[in-house]
Amino acid sequence: MLRLNSKFINIKSYRLASNIIFNENNSTLKNLLKVSTLLKENNDVILVNYKSNDQPSSVELATKASKFSKVYEINGDSIKEPERVTSLLSAVLKDNSDVENVIFNTQTLSKNIFPRLAAQIDVQPTNDIVKIIDENTFIKPTYAGNLLAKVEYKQAASKTKILSFRTSNFPLDDAEETVLLNNIEKTNDIPNENLCLDTPHNKFVENNIPDSTGRPDLTTAKVVVTGGRGLQNKDNFEKMTSLLADSFASIKKYGNQKASIGATRAVVDAGYANNSLQIGQTGKIVQPDLYIACGVSGAIQHLAGMKNSKIIVNINKEEGAPLEQISDYTLIADANEAIPQLAKKISDL
C-alpha cells in the first residue's frame, strides 16, 4: 500500500501597516505623501485633513500617491486649540491599531501638536527631519543648523513613531506625473468626537494673520524676498519688499508667480511685519531656489531658517555682515536705492 504524507503549509495573511498624515497645508501634502512612500512604500495612508476656509479646497498630488485608505476631517474653522486637535488625532490613532508612523509638516500648528501626541502615547518624537536613511534612521539639524544629528530607532521597538519633516527637502521628482483634486472627501468619522472636545486649559482668542496676498506659501515658495532693519520703517518695508517680490511674476523659470515675502525677527518685533512672515530659528524654515535678503545683517537665528536656500543674494550697505559669509552673491549698496532698479531689471527680462 502506498502512503502519502501530506505537509500542510500555513499561509498567514499579513495586513499592511499604516502611516497617518496630518495635513494642515494643501500645498505641502504632496511632499508628505512622498515622505510616506520613502518610509515604507506599501503602507496604507490614512489622512487627517485639517480643513479651514483659509485653505483652497483643490490640491495637487502625485498621480501614483493620490489615494487614501481612510480620510478623517477636523474643522479648522471651529477647532483651533492644539489640545483639542491633539485629542482628535489621538482618537484616530486609537481607531487604527496598525499605525507605524504619524507624519507632520514642520509648521505652526503641527509644532504644537506633535509633542503633545508623543507625550500621550509615551514615545520620543523626532522633529525637523531633512533626510531619510531608512524607515528607522533619520537626519535632522541641531545647534541652529550648524550640526546634523543622526537619529535611529531600534527595530525591536513596536511603538508608533511620531515624526515631523521639512517638506522642502522632499520634492517630487521632475518625471512624476501629478493630478489636481478639487476636493478630498471624508470617508470616516473620528470616534467619540464630541468627547474629545472638552474645554482645554488654553482658549483660542484670535488668529492675527494678514489677508491673502496672492503669493505662494512661504515654506514652499521658489523665490523669497526678505526685509530686515535696513528697510527702516513699516511703510518702506511693505513698499520695497512688495516691489521686488511682484517683479518675479514675469519670470517663467520661477513659474510666473510673485515671490513670497519674509521678515527677520527684529523687523517683526519692531512691528514692520506680521509674525507669520518671520524666518529663522523661532520662525519658519525656508529653502527656496532663490533667496534675496534686503537690509538683513544675518543673525545666527535667522541663518538657521534660510541657510539651505539654493541661491542666496544679499543686498546690504554694510560690508562684512554675517550673511555675506554664506551668500552666493552680495551687492554692497543701500537696499532702498538698489531694490527699485533691480525690480525694473527683473520685470524687463
TrEMBL record:
Binding site for FAD: 229, 264-265, 278-282, 295-302, 316
Molecular function GO terms recorded: electron transfer activity; flavin adenine dinucleotide binding
Domain called Electron transfer flavoprotein alpha/beta-subunit N-terminal: residue spans: 44-172
Cofactor(s) annotated in UniProt: FAD
Tree of life domain: Eukaryota
Keyword terms: Electron transport, FAD, Flavoprotein, Mitochondrion, Transport
Cofactor note: Binds 1 FAD per dimer.
UniProt-annotated location(s): Mitochondrion matrix
Alphabetized InterPro entries for the sequence: DHS-like_NAD/FAD-binding_dom, ETF_a/b_N, ETF_a/FixB, ETF_asu_C, Rossmann-like_a/b/a_fold
Domain Electron transfer flavoprotein alpha subunit C-terminal per the UniProt entry, residue ranges: 217-307
GO CC annotations on file: mitochondrial matrix
UniProt GO BP: fatty acid beta-oxidation using acyl-CoA dehydrogenase
Pfam families documented for this protein: ETF, ETF_alpha
Matching PANTHER family: ELECTRON TRANSFER FLAVOPROTEIN ALPHA (PTHR43153), ELECTRON TRANSFER FLAVOPROTEIN SUBUNIT ALPHA, MITOCHONDRIAL (PTHR43153:SF1)
Function: The electron transfer flavoprotein serves as a specific electron acceptor for several dehydrogenases, including five acyl-CoA dehydrogenases, glutaryl-CoA and sarcosine dehydrogenase. It transfers the electrons to the main mitochondrial respiratory chain via ETF-ubiquinone oxidoreductase (ETF dehydrogenase).
Oligomer and partners: Heterodimer of an alpha and a beta subunit.
Family: Belongs to the ETF alpha-subunit/FixB family.
Protein name listed in UniProt: Probable electron transfer flavoprotein subunit alpha
Organism: Hanseniaspora guilliermondii
